From TrEMBL:
It holds the Pfam family MoCoBD_1. This is Aldehyde dehydrogenase. SUPFAM superfamilies: Molybdenum cofactor-binding domain. PANTHER family: ALDEHYDE DEHYDROGENASE, BLR6219 PROTEIN. It comes from Advenella kashmirensis (strain DSM 17095 / LMG 22695 / WT001) (Tetrathiobacter kashmirensis). InterPro entries: Ald_Oxase/Xan_DH_a/b, AldOxase/xan_DH_MoCoBD1, AldOxase/xan_DH_MoCoBD2, AldOxase/xan_DH_Mopterin-bd_sf, N-heterocyclic_Hydroxylase, OxRdtase_Mopterin-bd_su_IorB.
Length: 718
């Protein structure tokens, strides 16, 4: 991570004279609970009373706070130990200050529930009584700190700490990006090229300028590829309110040039990807044994292809940012996942010194990877500059969000397996074709090591002959991070294929999957041709098939696997390793005679290592499950003539209350060793859902679904 981690209590903690504590959170809060979990860790190690703690958001300054890029399910994973050291150092400094004031040895003083206690006499001082003196002391080094033992934790692992922002959120006092209001603020929306790489030919703004409230129409220059985090360009309408700006934009008469991607048709592109994965490539990204020879001599050969379309993140709060420039100094308020990248993009586009740009982080009404790209903040900065520094808020409508996103990649996954006469899998071939996120930053047609390490190259099956190939795929739109990224198509394809093999052999799916995984073992990711390994140490984070086996055994036991259901009812299973966490999901479906699908229950087993905030873990897994159902059943962005076809929630639908699982049961695998490495939580719950759901549909109806979304396929004849 750029700028790594910081564990200085003077950076993160302030204690007032009355004992009130303020703890800064430097990561973005978008519903995952990080603004509770990280300060809670500090408070626990400090022996602070959580009821006397106020959490505030840090601004963008990675050199001060450490890495602030909130993605990859790594905020708690990477900052759990640094935040423990922050709290432990603060506690040690308070103890030292109290001992000095009493003129007693530090060994005779301990902290408990917001107080310093002299153990022999029982004398007490509040944290506020010695805070000023403590702040003047040298911060103890990390190796000199004594961290709490797990049995002394008051908040960590308990799952009983209330959300720091909970009351403000439910009472409407919390500030999201959309809530920012500044004196003299103007409001803007932007008409962007409908095709990625398209350009403005001409605009007639006469009618727009007649709309009451419209102040100015500004042309924004685009930028040449690669897209990076740059704005798309277009025509902005600035007004005294957002509604007037939207009305003004509708009145614009614009002619666009389509550019090099004007012919992009996702249906035709799918055929290109399918053709690519049906041909061998010379270079393999993983090549154990001789898979092609083993396939050729196999007693039985099974193959299948799976398709996942483009997806849009569609957070409930669309991209929004406010920027003002006063005396050459820029200040931004934005709901972004990457505040430092936002700062750096404003510096670049506004040509200002870095010290003259400040980015204030607001709450995010969802992110899912979209708000890691601050193109919308740059738009606000450019428009503020065009308005002589007046504050300008840029709001993306839902149509803007759906039609100009950094989309999750489209992919085709081709799988083949060779089996011997006893039904043992002896060969595995996987060809994966998809435009890479790397295309957003450079000219590339191949997936990155990170993308290939999301289930393709690092498949942990005990198969002697494995070959994984990655045919080229050109990107025709902006490709970006999405919740769980390439794990979505990989888990769908691989776990569906395993179920297909089990059915072909008339074997129980769970037993077949466990047999395919093989005995418990700890595998160096490099031995699976995974050089990425989530950017983690392969020694600390090997691929542990014992943990993968265990979550499968836990979830099937808790779900009642093997019980026979009524007609049209069945269970489906899938398991996946992502973001160094192990997840297995069982989906129970009911399918009516006319093909209507309902989901009465989902069980999810999760092994993420030590659990810092179990209540938030459960919430994230529940949300990930609902999102997984939504993507599997309805999620699709398609392209015609270079432009996204879908535009709002009427045609890019998301799961409603009526179609969501009626019950979600999360089974957390306990881990008591808090010195052990943590896994991620925000993303790993999503990947197994689509395969488990489609496997359940097959078990209930005999209909195999290999192309997402499921949509109306249930009503079609096999």
């Amino acid at each position: 991570m750029p700028h790594g981690t910081v564990d200085n209590p003077l950076i993160f903690v302030a204690i007032a004279a009355d004992g009130a504590i303020t703890i800064l959170c430097h990561r973005a809060e978008m519903g995952q609970g990080v603004r509770t979990s990280l300060p809670m860790v500090v408070a626990d190690e400090m022996e602070a009373d959580w009821g006397r703690v106020t959490v505030k958001q840090a601004w963008a300054e990675e050199a001060r706070f450490g890495n602030q890029d909130t993605d990859g399910s790594r905020s708690v994973r990477h900052f759990f130990m640094p935040m423990r050291r922050v709290g432990a150092a603060a506690r040690a400094m308070l103890v030292s200050a109290a001992a000095s004031q009493w003129n007693v040895p530090e060994s005779e003083v301990h902290a408990k529930n917001h107080e310093l206690i002299h153990t022999p006499t029982g004398k007490k001082l509040g944290f506020g009584d010695v805070a000023q003196k403590a702040a003047q002391l040298e911060v103890p080094s990390g190796d000199a700190l004594k961290l709490k033992s797990a049995d002394a934790f008051r908040y960590i692992g308990k799952g009983q700490t209330h959300i720091a922002d909970g009351m403000d959120i439910v009472t409407g006092r919390a500030q999201y990006g959309q809530d920012v209001r500044l004196e003299g603020m103007l409001y803007a929306v932007v008409a962007r090229p409908p095709v990625f790489g398209g350009k403005l030919v001409k605009v007639d703004d006469a009618a727009a300028l007649k709309i009451p409230g419209v102040v100015k129409v500004v042309t924004l220059a685009g930028s040449p590829p690669p897209a990076m985090f740059n704005p798309l360009g277009g025509v902005a309408v600035i007004a005294t309110n957002t509604w007037a700006a939207i009305a003004g934009r509708k009145a614009l008469k614009i002619e666009w040039e389509g550019g090099p991607h004007a012919s992009y048709d996702s249906a035709e592109y799918r055929k290109q990807l399918e053709a690519s994965v049906r041909k061998p490539t010379e270079k393999a990204v993983r090549n154990d044994g001789d898979a092609m020879a083993a396939l050729g001599s196999a007693a039985k050969r099974i193959q299948a292809e799976y398709y996942v379309p483009h997806l849009a993140q569609a957070p409930m709060e669309t991209p929004v940012a406010t920027v003002r420039i006063v005396d050459g100094k820029c200040e931004a308020w934005a709901s972004v996942q990457a505040p430092q990248a936002t700062h750096d993009m404003l510096v670049k586009w506004l040509e200002l010194p870095p010290e003259n740009v400040k980015v204030n982080q607001t709450l995010l009404g969802g992110g899912f990877g979209r708000k890691s790209k601050p193109d919308f903040v740059v738009e606000a900065g450019l428009l503020s500059k065009a308005m002589d520094g007046k504050p300008v808020k840029v709001t993306w409508t839902r149509e803007d969000d759906i039609q100009h996103s950094y989309y999750h990649t489209v992919s085709v996954e081709h799988l083949e397996a060779g089996l011997d006469a006893q039904g043992k899998v002896t060969a595995w071939l996987h060809r994966t074709a998809a435009p890479s996120i790397g295309s957003t930053f450079a000219d590339t047609k191949l997936q990155s090591a990170g993308e290939l390490g999301m289930g393709a190259a690092n498949v942990p099956f005990a198969i002697p002959n494995v070959r994984v190939e990655n045919p080229e795929a050109e990107a025709h739109t902006r490709i970006g991070w999405f919740r769980s990224v390439s794990n979505i198509p990989r888990a769908f394809a691989i776990q569906s294929f395993v179920a297909e093999m089990a059915a072909e052999l008339d074997k129980d799916h769970r037993d077949f999957l466990l047999d395919l995984i093989g005995p418990a073992r700890r595998i160096n990711p490099a031995d699976l041709s995974d050089s990425w390994n989530h950017d983690e140490s392969p020694e600390k984070y090997p691929v542990d098939t014992g943990r993968l086996r265990n979550v499968i055994e836990v979830v099937t036991r808790e779900a009642g696997w093997g019980k026979s259901g009524a007609k049209g009812q069945a269970m489906g299973l899938a398991a996946h390793y992502s973001f160094v966490t192990y997840v297995a999901t069982v989906v129970h479906v009911e399918v009516s005679d006319n093909g209507e699908l309902s989901i009465p229950r989902v069980d999810v087993a999760v092994d993420c290592g030590p659990q810092v905030n179990p209540e938030r873990i459960r919430s994230q897994i529940e949300g990930a499950t609902v999102m997984g159902v939504s993507l599997a059943t309805m999620g699709e962005i398609s392209f015609k003539n270079g432009a996204a076809v879908q535009s709002n929630f009427h045609d890019y639908r998301i799961t409603s209350m009526m179609s969501a699982p009626r019950e979600i049961h999360v089974h957390l695998v306990a881990a008591s060793d808090y010195d052990a490495p943590l896994g991620g939580v925000g993303e790993p719950g999503t990947p197994p859902v689509s395969a488990a759901l489609c496997n359940a549909i097959f078990a209930a109806t005999g209909k195999r679904i290999r192309s997402l979304p499921i949509g109306n396929q249930m009503q079609q004849k096999s």
